[in-house]
Amino acid sequence: MGYIRLLLSIAGLCLLSACSGPNRLGSNNLGSNNLGAGINPNNSSTGSSHTVASSVMSKKTPLFTIRAVTQTTSASPADRLIALTFDDGPRPYVLFGSKAVRPAPGLIDILDQNGVKATFFVVGWRLTPKTWGEPRHEEDIGVTCIDAAEQLIRRGHELEDHTYSHLELRSAEKKNGEQWVMRDVDRGAQAIKAITGSQPQYVRPPDWIITSDARRDLEQQGYRVLTISSENPTALRDVNSLDYLCAGKAVGCPKPSLPDAVLQQVEQREKKGTFTHILAFHELSTTAAIMPRLISDLKARGYRFVTLTEYMKLVGSKPGETVKQAAVTRPTSVAALGR
Ligand SMILES: [Zn+2]
To answer: How many A from CA of 12 to the centre of ligand 1?
Structure first.
């Protein structure tokens, strides 16, 4: 089986080299439309940094989870899956395109044109009436975040919970107690439910930071908490695209380009036998701009794009159940994941 995977890997690489050319869109061309210098994609009033930190796991791994992952890791190219996710929105100027000096294409149209359904981890405070974003950093295109969220649903995308406040939860818990964290997640969920009519199932904590207690309690309430921790099987661990480093002044944007760096991460995971990936991006103009090339390169590599719900149906266990690494994956440092 390892030999077959190696062959598939080589085939994928051949496809990739045939299809990828120069960065056609230029990952940073639209940066100035974005949020200006010193942008913080976290976008909450507190603006926590996107420092990668480990989140904490809970205790047991259901056997069927491991089995599902094992099956996936030995999948044929037909089973190659990508769940594309975008945090921190809805940001209307990113979703529908900037009308500023340098007009930018809208992320929704880009996804539609490529036949891709994605999952948006939205911030609850944006889903309040008349809110269009952060005046300091964002462009008002005359569309509210609620309108944008409704449009996402109409076009077949999913909304999931990135908390209400977008505060970093471990610090917030230290300051305000765990119940505050639970309420913040729940407030975010209620804001989403008011639009979609259904309870979100997934929570991605800002910067992936959450205490083990809060995580366990959220899981007991039926949420599934996304993580970059190496304690999760690779297929159920977010791939941190580092796209926020390409916004604004693009300090630290991965080289040679963001799409290349993401493809490299995918390739690294393939080498370890994982052909299903949850890719974590942000609603940023610079990220929208690289999507056509990234999507086309991943398709050329044999990948199919699915929503997170479908992904979890095919790869993961039931929502709310704990997933912990067992013998499926080797521990990987958080620093290594961030590359
Ligand atoms: Zn965020």
So the answer is: 31
What DSSP character marks residue 84? Answer: E
For 330, residues 6+ apart whose C-beta sits below 8 A from its C-beta are: 272
Cα 238 to averaged position of ligand 1 atoms, centre (Å)? 13
Is residue 193 within a helix (H) or strand (E), and if so which, with residue range? helix 178-196
Planar angle of CA 177, 181, 186, nearest 5 degrees = 145
Tens digit of pLDDT for each residue in 241-290?
Answer: 999 999 988 889 999 999 999 999 999 999 999 999 999 999 999 999 99
Of 289, 277, 271, the closest CA to residue 110 belongs to 289
Provide the 8-state DSSP code for 235.
G
245 CA to middle of ligand 1, Å? 13
Listed in sequence order, the DSSP H helices in 20-62 are none
Q: How far apart are CA 235 and CA 278, in angstroms?
A: 7
How far away, in angstroms, is 87 Cα from ligand 1 center?
5
Residue 165 CA to ligand 1 centre (angstroms): 10
> From ligand 1's centre to the CA of 253, what distance in Å?
17
Task: Quote the ligand 1 centre to 207 CA distance (angstroms).
Answer: 6
CA 43 to ligand 1 center in whole angstroms? 8
Q: Ligand 1 center to residue 73 CA distance, Å?
A: 29
Which residues have C-beta within 8 Å of that of residue 184, sequence separation ≥ 6? Answer: 124, 163, 164, 165, 167, 169, 172
Work out the number of other CB atoms within 10 angstroms of the CB of residue 114.
15
Distance in Å, CA 47 to ligand 1 centroid: 9
**The residue to which tokens 């569309």 are assigned:** 143
- C-alpha of residue 44 to centroid of ligand 1, in Å: 9
Q: Is 224 strand, coil or helix?
A: strand
Q: What domains, with CATH codes, occur in the chain?
A: 2-337 (3.20.20.370)
Q: Is the pTM of this model over 0.85?
A: no
